[in-house]
UniProtKB/TrEMBL annotation:
GO cellular component terms attached to this protein's record: plasma membrane
Keyword Ribosomal protein set for record: no
Membrane-crossing residue ranges in chain numbering: 6-27, 39-61, 67-88, 146-168, 180-197
One MF annotation (Gene Ontology) recorded for this entry: amino acid transmembrane transporter activity
Subcellular localization: Cell membrane
Organism per entry: Rhizobium etli 8C-3
Topology relative to the membrane: Multi-pass membrane protein
Main subcellular location of this protein, as a coarse class: membrane
Entry keywords, A to Z: Cell membrane, Membrane, Transmembrane, Transmembrane helix
Keyword Cell membrane: yes
GO BP, sorted A to Z: cysteine export across plasma membrane
Name assigned to this protein: LysE family amino acid efflux protein
Amino acid sequence: MTFEQTAAFLAFSVVGAITPGPSNVMIMATGSLGGLTRGLPCVLGAALGMSSLFFCAGLGLAQLFLLYPLALTIMNLIGAAFLFWLAFKIATTDVAQAKGGTKAVGFVQAAVFQWMNPKGWLVAVSGIAAYCGASPESAFGSAATFAGLFFVAGFPSGLAWLMAGALMQKLLRDARIARAFKIVMAVVLAGSVTTIFL
């Protein structure tokens, strides 16, 4: 990739990683629950999971979905159904139960979550489709470059969302505020899914 192509893809990656979406809502909720230290595995898992999605898209998934758009639509619908269910669980979990028994989302869960996230698929497929054709490198080299650049953008973006959640941790000791926060997070998560299909 040329310097200009790299800079353009990095800018695309920053926008894709920092904007609100299901993954960032999950990271923020993890920060509000477990704080910065316990939330770091979640951020790292999300960044590496999304980078692995970019890597696989660069190796050929993007071409497959461009040839068979129905396959991407089906995957997005399955992912959206899961995220709506997750939003429902967030909104209906008892506050006292959440404080006592819920653990912060870990590395593996966050990484796997990226493969179920419709926004993640759309960002990866559209990014590869837009920038892949101009690269003179091999498929493997291009895919690795895309994955690495997205990690460079995604990890700091996730940290920003984690810090925002951790800053809210003290406020959430009040049951009424915690209840309102859960509902807002559920609505934002559901809303972020619906915007993908508009």
